[in-house]
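RECORD TYPE: inverse folding
INPUT: structure tokens
STRUCTURE:
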């Protein structure tokens, strides 16, 4: 689904763009600013963490996979939150969006996407060192 498309909900039709921009999640902690991408595993939004002095974060609303239960996904998100490695994006929080029955992952926000970073290195013909790999 792209921004601006209309989806059906219990009380009629709503516009996705207006529903997500300004939306507040997890008891008012996170405020959605804008959608920044969509991929195979979900949609990613730029948001503010109101409990951390309005720190900018990335929120990924994950698509449910048919053969995975919510409990299994939440266990995997808990493992991801505990990972601490310089080459892995840091997960800050996770929860279920009960309105959409969707798992949500909160991560550090980076202006630069992985694809833009790799394209920049390729365009500049920069090789990765053994330490970077």
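DESIGNED SEQUENCE:
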């Amino acid at each position: 689904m792209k921004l601006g498309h209309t989806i059906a909900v219990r009380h009629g039709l709503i516009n996705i763009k207006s529903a997500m921009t300004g939306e507040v999640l997890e008891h008012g902690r996170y405020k959605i600013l804008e959608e920044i991408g969509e991929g195979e595993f979900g949609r990613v939004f730029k948001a503010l963490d109101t409990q951390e002095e309005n720190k900018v974060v990335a929120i990924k609303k994950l698509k449910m996979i048919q053969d995975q239960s919510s409990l299994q996904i939440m266990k995997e998100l808990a493992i991801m939150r505990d990972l601490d490695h310089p080459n892995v994006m840091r997960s800050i929080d996770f929860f279920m969006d009960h309105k959409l029955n969707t798992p949500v992952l909160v991560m550090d926000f980076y202006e630069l996407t992985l694809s833009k970073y790799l394209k920049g290195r390729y365009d500049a013909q920069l090789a990765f060192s053994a330490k970077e790999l």
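NOTES: The first helix runs from residue 16 to 20.
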